[in-house]
Amino acid sequence: MPHVVLKNVSKAYGRVKAIDHLNLEIFDGEYLTMLGPSGCGKTTTLRAIAGLIQPDEGEILFDGKNIVDLPANERDIGMVFQHFEIFPFMDIWENVTYSARVKGLPQNKIEELGVNALKLVGMLHRANDYPDELSAPELQKIGIARAIATEAKLLLLDEPLGALDLKIRMEYQHELRKLVKKLGLTAIHVTHDQIEAMNISDRIAIMRKGRIYQVDTPMNLYYKPNSIFVCNFLSNSNFLEGFVEQVQESRSIVRLRGFGPKIIIPTTQWPVRKRLVLAIRKNEVAFEFEPSFEKNLVNATIIKRHFMGSRTIFQLRLENNDLFEAEILTREIPKDLNSQVTLSFDINHVMSFEYPEKLDYELALE
Ligand code: ATP
Fold it and tell me: For an engineered disulfide with 59, which of 7, 106, 201, 247 has Cβ 3.0 to 4.6 Å away?
């Protein structure tokens, strides 16, 4: 409990379609993250599930029952926000047990819920302190404890770790996921941080302009994106235009535009002459020193170099004048500007997409 389904849910603010005929299923006990650029409708979706806004159309089902007209306080949901919304005039204990007290639960039940929730986040020893005595990470834990103490089985989290430093965020992601799994909750988490989404989720829903582009496991989204947008959003890739020249038994050969180099792709799904966009991740490219049969090999000239510490970003020009970027381990032999190099990258990791109507639109991260 619970299993959540959104069917054809829409919400507009004037002419802005904040959510546009959105369909999404979140399984019982699942940790699902909604990820997408700013303004794509993540928070609006979460608020619709919470009952804080009423959709213009569509159904929201909890365990098969349409709850779209049910008031927020009857939906049995725990919520955690980026801006903690902890009452400053109440101590930590009063904050965490607030919902149980408002519901009028018996004193021993309130005690049990408050103690368990604070223990789970390791903050029982701070029960008598006031919020202004706590640090941002500690307050975040209190926000989570307060949501858990509602006993709700559905947890909605809106950028819950957004106020934390990068360094402790990773640790909290791990803790939060562990807690949700331990308590058998269903969690719907909103973030615009890809690494957080990858680290914490069973599945991620990638949103753009009020719609869902793809819902899948972090690994599948990364290795098998269904669109140029998802590929670009989740990985730092080169996107190159080409045409299918030959279809072989299990692979095809694509010639980059302007009589450019030939690239082998690991699929036979496209017919000869099909116009494609190939995506090659910048961090999967290396300088080739020994010929290798399982790799694509492409000649290029180095035009710029940016030292980034452990990695150096090289800007290169291919033989057809296409620009290309490669993020190469700095300890791999340094190369001079204007020198000719052979780049290599795994055939199996080249992704291919049908050339879209508007490539610029697909590549825009908004
Ligand atoms: P962010 O990551 O920046 O929080 P988001 O993906 O959560 O963005 P939403 O906050 O859901 O996006 O907003 C989706 C769209 O709806 C945006 O264009 C936003 O400006 C608009 N919007 C959201 N709430 C309102 C509102 N109350 N009134 C008018 N427009 C709104």
Answer: 7
Q: CATH code for 231-363?
A: 2.40.50.140
Cα–ligand 1 centroid distance for 12 (angstroms): 10
Kindly state if the Cβ of 192 falls inside 6 Å of ligand 1. yes
The stretch 67-92 carries a mean pLDDT of 86
Residue nearest to atom 18 of ligand 1 (CA): 39
Q: What is the pLDDT of residues 204-243, one digit of tens each?
A: 999 999 999 999 999 999 999 999 999 999 989 999 999 9
Q: Is this model's pTM higher than 0.70 or not?
A: yes
Task: Decide whether any atom of ligand 1 lies within 6 Å of the 212 Cβ.
Answer: no
Vertex 85 angle, CA 83 and 89, to 5°: 135
Quick one: pLDDT at residue 289?
72
The fold of the 4-230 domain, in CATH, is: Rossmann fold (3.40.50)
Is residue 13 in contact with ligand 1, taking CB distance under 6 Å?
yes
Distance from Cα 39 to the centre of ligand 1, integer Å: 5
CA of 36 to the centre of ligand 1 (A): 12
